[in-house]
Design brief:
Shape: globular
Largest sheet: 7 strands, antiparallel
Oligomer: single chain
Number of helices: 3
Radius of gyration: 20 Å
Structural class: alpha+beta
Strand content: 25-35%
Distance between the termini: 65 Å
Number of domains: 2
C-alpha cells in the first residue's frame, strides 16, 4: 500500500475506487471485491498477473485498461477501458455497463413479474379514481 501511495498523483490518474481496492487487497481475509461499476478499481501500475482481489481466483491486467478475472467472488469479468462485463457465478446473473445486473434465477424473474403486476393494479386503481 505504501508503494501505491508513493506513486499516486492525486490530481489525476487513479481515483478513490483505486484506493479502496488497494485497501481490500491488503486485507484478503475480507474476501471482498468492488462491484463492476466501480471505475478505477482495476488500476494497477504496469502488467499484473496473480490472485484476484478476493483471493478466490486469478486475474491478468494491463494498467486497468485491459483485463480478465475469474474467481468465486468476482465471477468472470472482462475489463476493457474500465467498462466491466461480468458473469456472476455465486448468484447467477450478467452484469453489463449501462444495464446493471440481469438475474438468471427464477426467483428474480417471478419477483419482477409480481412487481409488474402490482404496478399494473396500481395504475388501474389510479385510473378509476380519475373517472
Amino acid at each position: 500500500m505504501r508503494r501505491w501511495l508513493a506513486t499516486t498523483d492525486f490530481g489525476r490518474g487513479p481515483n478513490s475506487n483505486t484506493f479502496v481496492a488497494v485497501v481490500l487487497r491488503a486485507v484478503p481475509e475480507l474476501r471482498a471485491a468492488l462491484p463492476p461499476t466501480a471505475i478505477g478499481k482495476d488500476f494497477r501500475p504496469g502488467v499484473f498477473v496473480g490472485l484476484a482481489d478476493s483471493r478466490t481466483g486469478v486475474e491478468a491486467d494491463l494498467l486497468g485498461v485491459l483485463g480478465v478475472k475469474v474467481g468465486w467472488v468476482e465471477g468472470v469479468e472482462i475489463n476493457l477501458f474500465s467498462f466491466v462485463a461480468c458473469l456472476d457465478l455465486r448468484q447467477p446473473a450478467l452484469k453489463l455497463p449501462g444495464f446493471g445486473r440481469i438475474d438468471f434465477t427464477t426467483r428474480a424473474v417471478s419477483t419482477n413479474v409480481m412487481s409488474d403486476a402490482a404496478l399494473g393494479t396500481q395504475r388501474l386503481a389510479r385510473g378509476s379514481e380519475l373517472n
